[in-house]
């Protein structure tokens, strides 16, 4: 979510059928937890959607925006491996239009500033999350424009986050599927403003910072210590890259992963289902904030999907950055480590844990940025 001129290296300055909840039904935990912010926000509609509260149900249903990925991509997709697992592409959009204008000026269309492949293992008790650095140079496939009036030819050495800019969600999904060979079951997108509202309605997120964070670009100023972050501060934390660590985009990914775990740890204690107004406010914010694939763009489907994830807590998730190296020809960018990446994709396709060997030589997941924030 930083500007394109910021160096990546500081030294140089399954067609898918909807699976719903999937797996066997389990008795809900007394203190249920959801997977990531986007999956958790969907959980807040379970009671309202399942109870069929007339007007409120249709109000929430009308909030959700859907994109028909299957229709857009047709048959040119990886094989649907129906082994009980799910793969979800989660994007954070960096549009600076409307309420987001304070974070900078749009240079063309929005880009996918944050990208994660969430792999939910068979049984829906564990998950792996693979973050894709926005500055990764990849071979982008040919994509239709968002309005369908033109075609972009793609090409080599294209930044990953330009796929969304060129062709919206469909191109982002197509690019990830070409990179990984894994078919995405679902797509979920959250923007700046929606993210802030969700955190504010939740009542903030408790974190502990182990050192001061100062970043004028992300409007974040935090002293070392324990804080309850409001929406604005939470957004600043997941956007900052100059305030901690070495100032790289890879460090920011570590902060995002740490924040997600802090959020998941807190959600179990909120007790929203005992507070109908708060439940509705959360559900209203959640459904207004996200864009999903067409299999999830109604309350019933979204609630079923979220219900299938609520047994996964922060300790049940393995979070890594896609194996990469700095580009020797442009240290502002990174390149995939192809053999290591293949280890990651092969493990997820086989519904197995990501091996440690896959990330040992990667420039990702290095440094201390991820240790700055904790939920303790």
Structure commentary:
The protein is of the alpha+beta class. It has a domain at 24-191 and 291-363: 2-Layer Sandwich (Nucleotidyltransferase, domain 5), CATH 3.30.420. It has helices at residues 37-43, 46-51, 54-63, 69-73, 162-180, 192-202, 231-239, 249-267, 276-289, 299-307, 338-349, and strands spanning 65-67, 86-93, 112-120, 127-131, 137-140, 143-144, 151-152, 155-159, 186-191, 205-209, 213-215, 220-222, 225-229, 290-293, 317-321, 324-327, 330-336, 373-374. The strands form six sheets. A seven-stranded mixed beta sheet has the order 1-14-9-2-3-4-15, sandwiched between helices. A three-stranded antiparallel beta sheet has the order 13-10-18. β16 (324-327) and β17 form a beta hairpin. α6 packs across α7 (231-239). The protein starts with 36 loop residues before the first helix and ends with a strand.
Question: Would you kindly provide a brief summary of this structure?
Answer:
By secondary structure, the protein is of the alpha+beta class. A hairpin with a 4-residue loop joins β11 and β12 (220-222).
Task: Give the helices and strands, then pairings.
Layout: H1 37-43, H2 46-51, H3 54-63, E1 65-67, H4 69-73, E2 86-93, E3 112-120, E4 127-131, E5 137-140, E6 143-144, E7 151-152, E8 155-159, H5 162-180, E9 186-191, H6 192-202, E10 205-209, E11 213-215, E12 220-222, E13 225-229, H7 231-239, H8 249-267, H9 276-289, E14 290-293, H10 299-307, E15 317-321, E16 324-327, E17 330-336, H11 338-349, E18 373-374
Parallel strand pairs: 1-14, 2-9, 4-15
Antiparallel strand pairs: 2-3, 3-4, 5-8, 6-7, 9-14, 10-13, 10-18, 11-12, 16-17
Helix pairs in contact: 1-9, 1-10, 3-9, 6-7, 6-9, 7-8
């Amino acid at each position: 979510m930083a500007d394109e001129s910021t160096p990546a290296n500081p030294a140089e300055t399954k067609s898918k059928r909807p699976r719903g909840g999937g797996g066997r039904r389990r008795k809900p935990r007394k203190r249920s937890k959801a997977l990531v912010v986007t999956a958790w926000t969907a959980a807040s509609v379970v009671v309202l959607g399942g109870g069929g509260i007339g007007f409120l149900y249709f109000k929430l249903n009308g909030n959700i925006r859907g994109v028909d990925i299957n229709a857009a991509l047709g048959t040119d997709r990886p094989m649907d491996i129906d082994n009980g697992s799910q793969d979800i592409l989660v994007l954070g959009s960096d549009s600076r239009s409307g309420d987001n204008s304070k974070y900078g000026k749009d240079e063309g269309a929005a880009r996918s500033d944050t990208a994660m492949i969430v792999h939910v293992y068979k049984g829906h008790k564990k998950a792996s999350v693979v973050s894709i650095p926005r500055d990764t140079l990849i071979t982008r496939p040919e994509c239709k424009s968002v309005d369908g009036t033109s075609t972009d030819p793609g090409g080599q050495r294209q930044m990953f986050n330009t796929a969304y800019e060129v062709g919206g969600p469909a191109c982002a999904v197509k690019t990830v599927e070409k990179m990984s060979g894994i078919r995405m079951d679902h797509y979920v997108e959250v923007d700046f403003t929606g993210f802030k509202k969700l955190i504010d309605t939740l009542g903030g997120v408790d974190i502990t910072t182990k050192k001061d964070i100062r970043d004028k670009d992300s409007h974040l100023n935090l002293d070392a210590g324990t804080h309850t972050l409001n929406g604005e501060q939470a957004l600043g934390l997941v956007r900052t890259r100059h305030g901690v660590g070495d100032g790289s985009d890879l460090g920011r990914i570590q902060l995002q992963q740490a924040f997600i775990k802090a959020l998941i740890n807190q959600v179990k204690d909120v007790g929203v289902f005992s507070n109908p107004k708060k439940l509705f406010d959360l559900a209203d914010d959640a459904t207004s904030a996200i864009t999903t694939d067409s299999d999830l763009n109604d309350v019933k489907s979204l609630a079923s999907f979220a219900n299938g994830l609520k047994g996964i807590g922060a300790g049940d998730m393995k979070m890594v950055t896609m194996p990469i190296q700095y580009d020797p020809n442009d240290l502002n960018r990174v390149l995939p480590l192809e053999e290591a990446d293949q280890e990651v994709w092969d493990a997820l396709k086989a519904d197995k844990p990501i091996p440690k060997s896959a990330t040992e030589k990667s420039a990702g997941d290095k440094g201390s940025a991820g240790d700055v924030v904790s939920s303790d």
